Amino acid sequence: MQEYQAPADDQIVAIKSLEVRAMRDTLLRTNVDPIVSNPLRWAELSSEKQEEWKKYRQDLLDISKQPKFPKVVTYPTKPK
């Protein structure tokens, strides 16, 4: 029987990076795309709300630029 070897730190970081990016992609697909990709829904929003959605989308895209990524990640708050 082979002895268990714990994954190396770089392997853990790589896996965590994939998990965070997958969550980000899900949030983009389920929260953002239905709003920003629909011209009728987008046109109904005020310019302030459009800016909030743009910022939310960009914050999600920039999630990997957070200082402690991927070990500590703060997801942005979805606009209401």
Can you walk me through this structure?
The chain has 80 residues and is an all-alpha fold. Helix content is 61%, strand content 0%. The protein has helices spanning 9-36, 39-44, 47-61. Helix 1 (9-36) runs antiparallel to helix 3 (47-61). The mean pLDDT is 95.
Please give the structural blueprint.
Blueprint lengths: L8 H28 L2 H6 L2 H15 L19
For this entry, give a set of tags.
0% strand, 3 helices
Q: How many DSSP H or I helices?
A: 3
Mean pLDDT: 95
Question: How big is the Rg?
Answer: 17 Å
Q: Portion of residues in helices? A: 55-70%
Structural class: mainly alpha
Low-confidence stretches: none
Cα-to-Cα separation, first versus last residue: 55 Å
How much beta, percentage-wise? under 5%
Sheet bearing the most strands, described? none
The run of helices and strands is HHH
Question: Brief description of this entry?
Answer:
The chain has 80 residues and is mainly alpha-helical.
